[in-house]
Design a protein that fits this description.
Elements (H helix, E strand, L loop, with lengths): L8 E5 L4 H12 L3 E6 L2 H11 L6 E5 L5 H14 L5 E4 L12 H32 L2 E6 L12 H20 L5 E8 L20 H14 L3 E4 L1 H12 L2 H8 L13
Parallel strand pairs: 1-2, 1-4, 2-3, 4-5, 5-6, 6-7
Helix pairs in contact: 1-6, 3-4, 4-5
Length: 264
Amino acid sequence: MDRCDDAPLVFITGASSGIGQALAARYAAAGWRLALVARRTAEIGRWAAEAGLAADRWRAYGADVSDIDSIVAAGHACLRVQGVPDVVIANAGISVGVDTAERADLDVMARTFATNNTGLAATFQPFIVAMRRRGRGRLVGVASVAAIRGLPGHGAYCASKAAVVAYCESLRGELRGTGVNVVTLLPGYVDTPLTRQNRYPMPFLMTPQAFADRAVRAIEAGDSYRVIPWQMGVVAKLLRLLPNPLFDRLLQGRPRKHRQTGSA
């Protein structure tokens, strides 16, 4: 088992870019060992080399989070090679616009749920027994403020992130008293490849690095639920309080997320 010292270990999915890579950098700077998961492991290797990470401080695991056997195998490989993580962050996710009138978009929705929901649960699954046995650990689900209200044209993503919130809440109750904490993070708008093509205003837009700093503080504090930044949480909750007719009128004509086909 690869344990160069007693440094804590974090397991992060979607680590080849965006939020996942920023979280990896933040934990590396704090002296943690890294278990990094992505389909594109070569990109993780390039990033680690550019960051000057010692070879014994990180490992990359190739996996497709939408494939249960693939991500579960990555988790078991981490357990064999690096040991039981102190923190597992299910960060990998996809965001594509959908139109339910289009048959092809049902496949997009299925893939979104496979990645954002089943993939999240499969990310946690290999570690739960070992964490319970040890009596400590943190499982972190990355949701979104899009979970709070459904946005036109964004039904797959909003529904999947609402499901992340509900799933993590359920898991938190199941693990109560075991020493294993469940943390749910709801990012607002973060400047990543997922958001750069958005055709609508993105208030309180953050860099991935700014999000990672706040996220790690929330994880260390053991927060059960945290919207980042807090200002976006206030906006989202106000939208939740709006009566449906007013909410619908407010979003009428709002540009929609790009569909996979590239059409509006």
